[in-house]
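thought: fold this chain, then report.
action: predict
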Amino acid sequence: MIKSELIASLAAENPHLTQKDVERVVGVILEKMIVALEEGGRVELRGFGAFSVRSRPARSGRNPRTGETVDVRAKHVPFFKSGKELRARLNAD
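observation:
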């Protein structure tokens, strides 16, 4: 599901809200999640999972085309850990 499909689905389930309102709400929620992660925080959605930021140290890499060694700088990457309820629903028989 992509963002526009999520917005359309939520708008269909909530006819008292306009699509524009639903789009604004989804945008605000995602923006708040991004800001929390930018600040080094963690975003936890009970039953779904938790988003956090992990640091990757600088390292030496290799250019696959030329085989030349290149330096890869340190970076921060988003990390998602699924919640127990989500894992249970995905693995239900």
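thought: worth noting. The mean pLDDT is 95.
final: tokens above.
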